[in-house]
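Service request form, structural biology core

Requester: graduate student, group of Dr. S.
Request type: structure prediction, single chain
Budget code: on file
Notes: please return the result as structure tokens.

Sequence provided:
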Amino acid sequence: MSSDCLFCKIVNREVPTRFLYEDDDYVVFRDIKPAAPVHLLLVPKRHIRSINDLQKEDETIFSGLFMLAKDMAKEQGVNASGYKLLFNVEKGGGQVIFHIHLHLIGGWEK
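Core staff response, request fulfilled:
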């Protein structure tokens, strides 16, 4: 955990947020500034600053994020209509919170 990381504070319930999903490894909650009708953040509980900081041993965390995204898209009703999965990497790539997280974005009108 990073003491100044917003997502670490959310994971540790120091910042109140309603989780749509939680298990031993991940939490899922809605983005506070949604870019679409469905805009979820899928966050590993273990602090990893950026994709640039991934190590070989992080492969299972990453594959788990994609499986979780598939399940959350179905739960949110956007699996058939389609959705986007997005990582922002570093400041120049739009990363604002430096704790890896996956955006699941969808739900636009057809």
